[in-house]
Specification:
The chain folds into two domains: 204 residues, no CATH class; 61 residues, no CATH class. It contains twelve helices and six strands.
Length: 314
């Protein structure tokens, strides 16, 4: 039986464990266009307490003065650069920097970061693209930033990035497996679909033996990942519904403020306005006080923005 407190994702089981450093090296060469041939050069330094939805989905390691930070995701990842910044900060402070060295006069030498997201979600995605931390800054302020971090996103769904798949056979086999599991899920549950896909793998697949030996852990990992995708889809749906509700509330507030401004332009007092718009006097009073500062034009859009900033719950 599996006795890990927190389970590894299938991706990490294959590409993020000490016993599979040859597979890790193969993927590293495919991603970076290098030709290293000694797996013992890889030094894993993954932080084991960093979890996503209760699972370990990352791997970090050193190779020839470079620090690779890999993460697998099956959902859109717009905040990946921010996560990488936070992860790198924790990793560096934990493994490379002490209080004394941080304030020494000698420059601390750090390994060069290389951040990669391996994406195999159902949403359409480009073959490869670069996500930047500055994408999260205000559109008109991004060029002013003194900090930047880039994350390379690589689509590893079957049929994508064929050159990478040719160079890294284990990644080709992993993509084949995920595609077959999804196909099997059309007629059976995720656990049965996972086991069936492993059994259907060609005998010459390098990862097949490992998967068969650890089929219980693989099934548990796939079940958790499947449930996670369902959870994230539900969250996304709820967020869209909340957004629509907030939009209706904002529209109603805009309409009310526009009515109040028109009546103020006509010189009506607060009590009269509250009676005509059929709103509580206290609420209309607060809006009128802010609108008064923007008179005599009482521009409804400006009043709305001012109300939203100063008394958002009115």
């Amino acid at each position: 039986m599996v006795n890990r407190e927190h389970k590894d994702r299938l991706f990490k089981m294959i590409f993020g464990r000490e016993e599979h450093r040859d597979w890790t090296l193969s993927l590293y060469n495919a991603v970076n266009g290098t030709s290293y041939d000694d797996p013992s050069m890889i030094e894993f330094n993954t932080m084991e307490d960093v979890l996503f939805m209760g699972m370990k989905n990352d791997a970090s390691f050193l190779l020839d003065s470079h620090l690779s930070l890999w993460e697998h995701q099956s959902t859109p990842v717009p905040n990946a650069p921010l996560r990488c910044v936070m992860y790198l900060g924790r990793l560096w402070s934990k493994q490379y920097i002490g209080i004394k060295t941080l304030y020494s006069r000698k420059t601390i030498t750090l390994p060069v970061p290389r951040c990669v997201i391996f994406y195999n979600g159902m949403d359409d995605e480009e073959e490869q693209k670069v996500l930047k931390l500055s994408d999260a800054f205000p559109v008109d302020k991004g060029d002013e930033a003194d900090v930047e971090l880039r994350v390379r996103l690589i689509n590893v769904n079957r049929g994508h990035n064929r050159r990478l798949m040719e160079v890294c056979r284990p990644m080709y086999e992993y993509a084949w497996l995920i595609d077959r599991i999804r196909e099997n899920c059309r007629s059976m549950g995720i656990e049965a679909a996972s086991l069936r896909a492993i059994e259907e793998m060609p005998e010459n697949f390098r990862i097949k033996g490992f998967l068969l030996e650890n089929k219980e852990e693989v099934q548990m990992s796939m079940l958790t990942e499947y449930n996670e995708e369902e959870t994230l889809r539900i969250i996304a749906k709820e967020e869209r519904e909340e957004g629509r509700a907030e939009g209706k509330e904002e529209g109603s507030k805009r309409h009310l403020i526009a009515q109040i401004c028109k009546k103020m332009q006509k010189g009506k007092d607060v009590e009269q306005i509250a009676d005509e718009v059929e709103e509580e006097l206290s609420r209309v009073q607060k809006i009128c006080e802010i609108a008064q500062e923007l008179g005599p034009e009482y521009d409804a859009d400006k009043v709305f923005e001012s109300v939203r900033k100063r008394i958002p719950n009115v």
